[in-house]
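Supplementary Methods, section 5.1.

A reviewer requested that the exact input to the structure prediction be made available. We therefore reproduce it here, unchanged from the version used in the analyses.
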Amino acid sequence: MRAMRAMRAGDDNDPGSAPRRANADEAALRVEMTGTARRLLELGLVSGTAGNLSCRLDGDHVLVTPSAVPYSELAAEDLVVVDDAGSVVRSRQGRRPTSELALHLAALDAAPEIGAVVHSHAVHATAFATAGQSLPCVLEEMAYYLGGDVPVAEYRLTGTRELAVVAAPHLRERAAVLLANHGLLTVGRDLGEALDMTRLVDRCARIVLAARRLGGERPLPEEAIRELTRGWSERRARGSAAVAP
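The structure derived from this sequence is encoded token-by-token as follows.
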């Protein structure tokens, strides 16, 4: 609770108080994205070539992971630059953008504050997605960092525009959405924040599953959810959403 009060008070140590990076250097972002991809692999949130990442370079261009390249072998030069329409602008020979490009572009357009997207197959979160169940808002950090519960987007075939159409609207009011029978999609101002949201959702999913073995979870009171999500909405509106610890 002390940490939560500090967040409400705008603690200077809160990473979310930092301004969103604008027009970041492409070379630096390539290194960051490669490192984030490897971190997803190390944390067991993806395997093989599953999952994908994206981030805005500027108002017209997006950096995305390539299709069919294992994260363990991914190099900065493998990443692909596309424009807002999805057309390839720069790529290494033989490298194509992720097959989930439409999903990423739609997620980035869901809210102006969104600067990065992480799609993973985090095990505990994907269990809820497979069951077609939203993740209930049972912890304060879910309301504070994610905007509330994590909804489930209806099933659509992977790699299709139809999946983007059903998933992206949820990100107008949340930092995460479950993809039915598929996985998890999270967003943030930057890659670090989007990764933090992925870790948070999967941790909360694990806690809920454990609570159900003890008789069931107890959602937060509606009044608490309203108070905490109000702060989340205000931070997103000014482009300074906090990062989960």
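Confidence is low (pLDDT under 50) at residues 1-23, 241-245. These observations are discussed further in the main text.
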